[in-house]
Amino acid sequence: MSNIFVKRFTLFSPHVMISGMNEIAKDTNSVYLDYAAATPLLPAAFVAMEPFLRLEYGNPNSIHKLGVRARQAVELARAQVAQAVQVRPEYVIFTGGGTEGNNLALLGVIESLRKEGREYAYMEVVTTKIEHPSITKTMEKLAELGVTVKYVAVDTEGRIVLADLKELLSAKTVLVSCAYANSEIGTVQALRQIGKVIAEAEKKYNTIIYFHVDAAQAPLWLSCQFDSTGADFLVLDAAKCCGPKGVGVLVKSKRATLSPIMFGGGQEQDLRSGTENVAGIVGAGVAFQAAQADWRERAERVIQVRNQAILHLMDVIPEMVLNGALGDNRLANNINISIPGLDTEYATVVLDTHGFAVSTKSACAGAGGGESVVVREISADPARAASTLRISLSPDTTLEQIKSLTAVLKKHIEQMKRLTS
Amino acid sequence: MSNIFVKRFTLFSPHVMISGMNEIAKDTNSVYLDYAAATPLLPAAFVAMEPFLRLEYGNPNSIHKLGVRARQAVELARAQVAQAVQVRPEYVIFTGGGTEGNNLALLGVIESLRKEGREYAYMEVVTTKIEHPSITKTMEKLAELGVTVKYVAVDTEGRIVLADLKELLSAKTVLVSCAYANSEIGTVQALRQIGKVIAEAEKKYNTIIYFHVDAAQAPLWLSCQFDSTGADFLVLDAAKCCGPKGVGVLVKSKRATLSPIMFGGGQEQDLRSGTENVAGIVGAGVAFQAAQADWRERAERVIQVRNQAILHLMDVIPEMVLNGALGDNRLANNINISIPGLDTEYATVVLDTHGFAVSTKSACAGAGGGESVVVREISADPARAASTLRISLSPDTTLEQIKSLTAVLKKHIEQMKRLTS
């Protein structure tokens, strides 16, 4: 593929290339139902970013006016995020995205404990087997270092089994990590109850057990008020809540200490060296604030559509299986179904040609083939894990749109049946 | 400071905040002479980015049209960078910035060797004491891991002493790291000669010694044609050559292998997990291509201005000392002087009030006080290291602008003399 581009590109002057881009940019009037993978940028975020892309190019670390204004913009954005999650600004650290935030939290806390003299071999971490790759892959790295990684059981809806968590926590446990809402099946974890189990273990073993929560999918649909999550580390990704790509936030508790995973100029309290992405941070500030400002109304509205949509899908496609929880335990905009026997990757392409953008699983879990690790874990059913379809609604998705999608899907399923019978 | 912002912010609605931003954005008509710290975004880069901020919000890892178009844009940008540095696209890795690129190259190559079974204790790395913090601080991390970090001598202009390099290289050496052009004093290293010394050592010890070059300051003024640099790892930062902040590039040689420093979805050949910053990458592609397209003409033009400017400064301020090299060994747009006895941080503020944006040293080395480590190293003169002034020209800087700056500076120096005599 790259080679094609080289060939193509050599014919391009920058100008031609740019108009090429604009052509690429046409034909976007499809029904976008992949909100869990990426979200459009909030117009207000773009408006806030534009001056810092076009005029205000100062380095926030410079002491002249241009630098000072860039610094003010970064601190203003930090204050917006701080207000959105209700912490003091010094507990808000901007990162290069959600993945970096999860890496910084997990590797950073372990490294910090290591610096305090605790051997990797005397550290245990507890997580689940249904987390986003930015957690599961980082856990593998921790295991390489000698940290013991324990996996707590999840039920058939993907919720952490509290009794099992209680069992797993020990005097050696230093960290518990899970998603606020699962990026594939939308299962919302019972953070308060998990936090309670952790607190009991801390008392029982007279130790500190940090709680890391990957809240990438949360800001548009759930409260991210920091104290109410009980987290020591709350990781957000602007790109998942109508902010720009390439900007994340790590909110840390007062008691938590971190070591950096990147080294340099010491920006972001020496936790994220490198010149700040000023425009991106400005856009992120606006996006997180807007997402949290009215998450409840947004969620209540979309939950209505989602519930009716699920009933409609069940009605039209009786062979489908719903993956994940129902009611409050399911992220407002998430629908995840399996249609055993159906090649849902192909179905995704077919739906796309009809103007419906959906996905099979998490984009980061590989857009391509392969079963859903998440659904495999909760169902122990390979056929179900191999036939997932994730429909993640936007705040404006209508039941009618889902009904037309369902019709296309139904037709496709019947065609496939005919072909294979 | 943060607290002020919280107080201020709570008074702000998003709208007020945004217009607040636009007010911040006024008064940018000063003479900007801090190009080494940050550069304005190329209008063509903004034009290329805008659709990917406003319309094309797809996740490049999604398989639907919106995702495919985002993927195409990323690969097109990769092809632009590949063409600019003349490598195949698969050797171009997008990162979250120059600092991350340097960290990935240094930590990544050591970790990769470690995985191949080589103990840290059997690895030696050679660098200088005048590198950017993203290298010096990462070297400290490598030393913590047990890698031996050796510092090669630099001469009074900041150039690596080749004889000393030859001395330091051994059978245990796995990596040599230096900047193409120093970010403070603009000294350009003799990459080819350094490469030759490395090649001889590789033959002599029958080993592989990787060569890492931090080229953040180079694209606008020097050829970054990959083979001609002799590097195994060439690190670029879009924000230093009229691209957006928060995007870097790591160009790797065919023989070089790296381990990631962040873990997750496996993007960028598993070397930089996390959803790609599509708009930023698109802007970076345009910026790197434009920077390299006519670097020579740009450099030749600016060198004329810079040389006359240095002569004028020497003439008007005889007590000044020039830091760094002259002629081809100095980055085209760099002027770095010391005025022993002068508080140049205050002078920077005074110049700023007169509309001249300059700096004392590298923004990442801390905009605030403290001597320049770089100048301390080359001069062993604390007074000189404590009184540096970095004037980094733009492609459009005129001699007249430098003359007016010089007049303001001269006046300020005389005032200071009167006050202190």
Structure description:
Two copies of one chain form a homodimer. Chain A folds into two domains: 72-293, Type I PLP-dependent aspartate aminotransferase-like (Major domain) (Aspartate Aminotransferase, domain 2); 295-420, Aspartate Aminotransferase, domain 1 (Alpha-Beta Complex). Chain A has 16 helices and twelve strands. The first copy, chain A, has helices at residues 2-10, 14-24, 43-54, 65-85, 98-115, 133-145, 162-168, 191-205, 226-229, 267-270, 278-293, 295-316, 344-353, 373-379, 382-385, 399-420, and strands at 31-32, 92-95, 124-127, 148-151, 173-179, 210-214, 233-237, 248-252, 321-322, 334-338, 356-357, 388-392. In chain A, the strands form three sheets. The first copy, chain A, has a seven-stranded mixed β-sheet, with helices on both faces. In chain A, strands 9-10-12 form a three-stranded antiparallel β-sheet. In chain A, strands 1-11 form a two-stranded parallel sheet. In chain A, strand 6, helix 9 (226-229) and strand 7 (233-237) form a beta-alpha-beta unit. In chain A, helix 5 packs parallel to helix 6 and helix 12 runs parallel beside helix 16. The two termini of chain A are 36 Å apart. The model of chain A is unreliable at 1-28 (pLDDT under 50). The interface between A and B is large, with 117 and 116 residues.
